[in-house]
Structure formats: structure tokens, C-alpha cells
Amino acid sequence: MRRELRVLLVTALLGVTWAWGGELSVAVSRMEVFRVHEVDIDIHGLRYLTRETVLQAMELTPETSVWSDTETWVEALGELHLVRSATVIRRLPHTIIVSLLERQPVALVATPTLEPVDGDGILLPLDPASHRLDLPILETDDSPIDRGRIMPQRTRVLAGEVDRLMRADTAFLQMLSEVRWGEGNSLVARWSEPSVDFLLPFGLSPERLQEGFVVLGHAMTRTPGDVPESVDLRFADLVVVRRANGN
Fold first, then answer.
1. Where are the alpha helices (DSSP H) in 35-187?
2. Burial of 4 by CB count in 10 Å (0-12 exposed, 13-18 middle, 19+ buried)?
3. Domain spans, the chain
């Protein structure tokens, strides 16, 4: 109880002295009660990143205080390739709360080795095998810009549409093996099992995608031994099913 009262009094004093500025505020902020250690860092949002990587980026020192500049930490965490955004807040007397939004892989790109890419077309430093990333492959001849982590515009647009489709229907994306540009402003999404190409316009709605599933199921029921070659959803209010024989 005495310790809690002491922290409360010191915090109130610090608030007053901080408003006045000067050496007194600096001296109070350096008090042991406000020192931050690694165990005092509360990190949320970790999926691919490790706690050790986050702490290393924050560069804590024996002099680190709960009153240290949080914006410096936000900028340092934002430089990690897997971090989309970060927030850092204080919780007195000596706890720092870090909340991360990690970039999520949506597809694989050959660079020439297969590397995961997120919906913004940013290459992510993740090993697909180690993390068991079962993702479609983006067919593209593009290479990263200036040998960096950003893919060219055309690949970024394709990755963004795959990300949107994943949010619209996760089950559909789980069946995909490859995604590539089609004719005009469209894409070709190839299912692996059964082997069927979906010809899709950009911005396709989940409801329209479901219509394609229904028509495909009906076509396969009618001729079980003749799997359609493609399902074309590029035309409004029309689903075109094509078979290998040209029908």
C-alpha cells in the first residue's frame, strides 16, 4: 500500500513538474520506479514476429523510462518488414504496451525463389515451408523494384485483388493454386482440385462468386466425367461454363 501511495504521489508530482519543465521533471522521470525493463513490455498482435525481434527493434537501455519518447519506438517498429502499423502507450508506473498489426501473406511470388507477398505487394521475410503457407502463386514476370521488398505496380494490383477475394470468401482462396492476369482488366484464378479456371472481373462481389460455385456444381452433376475447363464470371448476370471440347 505504501508503494502504491508513493507511486501515486510521484506521478502527481511528475505531472506538475512536466508542465513547468526544467531539470526537476528530468530528475523525477529518471527515478527507479519509472524504469522500464524487458519484462515490463506487453506486446500484442504477434503472429509471425517474435518477441525478441520486437524488443531488439525498441533498443531498450538501463536508462529507459516509461516517459521515454514513444514515437521513437513507433518509428523503429514501423521499419520492420512484417509490421503494417504499431502503437505504443504507457501504463504507469513502468509498463509499456505495444500493439502491432502485422502484414499478412496472401500469395507467393517467384523472385525466382517463392516468397510470400501481402495485399500491398510487399515481399515478406517469411519461409513458406517453415510457416506452412498454403497460398496461391501469382504468375508474373516482374521483379522487386530496385531489388527491394516492393513489387511493381502490376503485381501489387493483382496481390490486392487476391487479398480482397480472400476476405470475401476464404474457402475460395484455399482452393486456388495460381492467379494471373487475364484479358483486359480481369484475372484468371485456377483451382487445383478440380482443375478449373475462374475468369473474374476486378471487384467481384461474394454473391456473384457464389453464383459461379452453384453453376459449376450443377455442370459437374450433369456430366460427372467431364469437368468444365473454365467458369467465366466477367459478364453481368451471366455465368459461362466452357468445357475442354469447346462447348
1. 51-58, 70-78, 153-168, 170-174
2. exposed
3. 1-33, 35-102, 105-242
- C-alpha cell read off for 222: 450433369
Grid coordinates standing for 183?
A: 484479358
* Residue 18 grid cell: 512536466
C-alpha–C-alpha distance, residues 25 and 34, integer Å: 12
User: Which CATH class name applies to 35-102?
Assistant: alpha beta
Residues 6 or more apart in contact with residue 38 via CB below 8 angstroms: 55, 60
Q: CA nearest 34: which of 70, 7, 9? A: 7
Torsion of CA 147, 150, 151, 157, to 10 degrees: -170
Q: Judge whether 115 and 105 are in contact, CB under 8 Å.
A: no
Pick from 95, 82, 158, 86: which is nearest to 123 by CA?
82
Can the peptide bond before residue 93 be classed as cis, meaning omega within 30 degrees of 0? yes
Angstrom distance (rounded) from CA 29 to CA 84:
31
The CATH number assigned to the domain with range 105-242 reads 3.40.50
Q: What is the pLDDT along the chain (247 residues), one digit of tens a residue?
A: 455 555 554 555 555 555 545 454 555 556 777 889 999 999 999 999 999 999 999 999 988 999 899 999 999 999 999 999 999 999 988 899 999 999 999 999 998 889 999 999 999 999 999 999 999 999 988 778 767 789 999 999 999 999 999 888 888 888 899 999 998 889 999 988 788 999 999 999 999 999 998 999 898 888 777 889 999 999 988 999 998 766 6
Its pTM stands at 0.81
